[in-house]
Design goal:
alpha/beta; 2 domains; Rossmann fold; 6-stranded parallel β-sheet
Length: about 325
């Protein structure tokens, strides 16, 4: 990915071992107009680069799903992600993308490409639920709902990404408490990216977490042709997977309370015709919507950058931007 990015720029600077002060000076020397914060409050965040104004315009984008409250002029979102009534909770002004705010890589392996790896054959189960989110997103509310879903769907299994022995043992112990066979809880190792995408095609339905939903993983699942059930809240981080579904015209897979979340998962697993209808709708949406069209997304993002630059050059303060 670094190689792919590097060749698209006239200049590329590797700054891991460069001080914040020197990065700011270099940015000013290059007369950078717009600086993009791709991290926010995540590990190894170098916020001083933005606090001390590395560029006239600074944007919170993608890495941190929420407001950062320091010297960032804009945050990139969409109308589903940040409804108008929630604008007051953001220090940044909002750039509203016309489709889902999240970028996609259209060069990834596609859903229709065959899964030829026998290792990913889980045909012993009638229905295969999965959640390949990081284990830190799994809480009692969600895990209890998953167990109740399995109880009401015959010969089904739940596939999770393996984190560590303690997490695995803890979750298996919860299955024992509910008298559910631990054979129905399968932990998967992490894989290289291409194989990770191919493995998705072995599953039927992705069960999302709450209040921190799937973000990149939701994109990967849907791109791989795996329908996803989301539980949408009010926060940025709880609405990303729902935004993807909304812009794929799959609003029927968005729920707003835990009961509806469970009921929908049980209904789809026990009604093959309805599930096939949803799956077909997703497959069609992958190719017909703008959600996974990298060129359209890039064009819209460039329009946004030009719009805020022109406002800045005209001496105007940052204001919400709506792209059509």
């Amino acid at each position: 990915m670094t190689r792919r990015i590097k060749v698209t720029f006239d200049k590329f600077y590797y700054t891991k071992n460069v001080s914040d002060e020197d990065i700011i000076l270099k940015s000013r020397e290059l007369q950078v107009d717009i600086a993009i914060d791709l991290m926010g409050y995540t590990n190894n965040y170098r916020k001083n680069i933005f606090i001390n104004q590395s560029a006239p315009l600074q944007i919170n984008y993608l890495g941190y799903p929420g407001t950062t409250a320091h010297n960032l002029d804009y945050i990139i979102a969409d109308k589903y992600l940040i409804p108008k009534e929630n604008q007051k909770y953001y220090f940044e002004k909002i750039i509203y993308m016309p489709d889902c705010y999240q970028p996609s890589d259209s060069k990834r392996p596609k859903y229709e490409e065959k899964n030829t790896n026998g290792e990913f054959n889980y045909s012993k189960f009638n229905f295969k639920f999965c959640c390949l989110n990081d284990s830190s997103k799994i809480n009692p509310l969600i895990f209890n709902s998953w167990m109740q879903i399995l109880k009401k769907t015959k010969n089904s299994a739940l596939f999770l990404l393996e984190a560590n022995k303690y997490c695995k043992d803890n979750l298996i112990n919860e299955f024992y408490k509910e008298n559910i066979s631990s054979e129905r809880l399968i932990f998967l190792p992490k894989l290289p990216y291409q194989e990770h995408l191919i493995r998705f095609r072995s599953f039927d339905l992705f069960l999302d977490t709450f209040p921190y939903s799937a973000h990149t993983t939701a994109n990967e699942a849907l791109w791989s042709g795996v329908p996803l059930i989301s539980l949408s809240g009010q926060s940025f981080q709880s609405r990303v997977s729902s935004s993807l579904l909304h812009h794929l015209t799959l609003d029927s897979l968005i729920t707003y309370n835990i009961k509806d979340y469970k009921d929908l998962a049980i209904f789809l697993a026990n009604n093959p015709l309805k599930f096939k209808e949803i799956k077909t709708k997703l497959i069609n949406a992958i190719s017909t919507s703008n959600v996974f069209d990298t060129k359209i997304y890039t064009g819209n993002l460039e329009k946004a950058y030009k719009a805020i630059y022109e406002k800045h050059q005209s001496g105007l303060d940052p204001q919400d931007i709506y792209l059509n």
